[in-house]
């Protein structure tokens, strides 16, 4: 796949404690990366907004179970 994804995987291994966006490869055997945010929860979406996820253009894809919250918080009108 070779893409960078924003999803719940972004907060594993202590990455949820970082104060800036970081791209990392969570599983060495797979060819995708993730950003250190959890876009599957409201708290995670708010944190992603505060860190400027969309404006950073680091994620090729944002995955969320909270689509309304993601659209309302992450994207400008």
Short description:
By secondary structure, this protein is α/β, with parallel strands linked by helices.
Fold and architecture overview:
The protein has helices at residues 42-51, 53-56, 67-74; strands spanning 4-6, 23-24, 33-35, 61-62. With 77 residues, it is an alpha/beta fold. α1 runs parallel beside α3.
| Through-space gap between termini | 30 Å
Largest sheet: 4 strands, mixed
**Using DSSP, what is the number of strands?**
4
Taken as a percent bin, the fraction of beta residues is: 5-15%
Class derived from helix and strand content:
alpha/beta
For the largest sheet, list the strands in their spatial order: 2-3-1-4
Unreliable sequence segments: none
- Overall pLDDT, averaged? 92
Radius of gyration of CA atoms, rounded to a whole number: 11 Å
Number of helices: 3
Helix content: 25-40%
State the shape: globular
H/E series: EEEHHEH
Write the layout of secondary structure elements.
Elements: E1 4-6, E2 23-24, E3 33-35, H1 42-51, H2 53-56, E4 61-62, H3 67-74
Parallel strand pairs: 1-3, 1-4
Antiparallel strand pairs: 2-3
Helix pairs in contact: 1-3
């Amino acid at each position: 796949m070779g893409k960078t994804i924003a999803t719940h995987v972004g907060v594993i291994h202590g990455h949820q404690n970082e104060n800036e966006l970081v791209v990392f490869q969570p599983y060495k055997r797979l060819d995708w990366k993730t950003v250190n945010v959890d876009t599957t929860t409201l708290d995670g979406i708010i944190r992603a907004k505060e860190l400027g996820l969309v404006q950073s253009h680091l994620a090729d894809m944002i995955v969320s179970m909270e689509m309304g919250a993601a659209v309302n918080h992450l994207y400008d009108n």
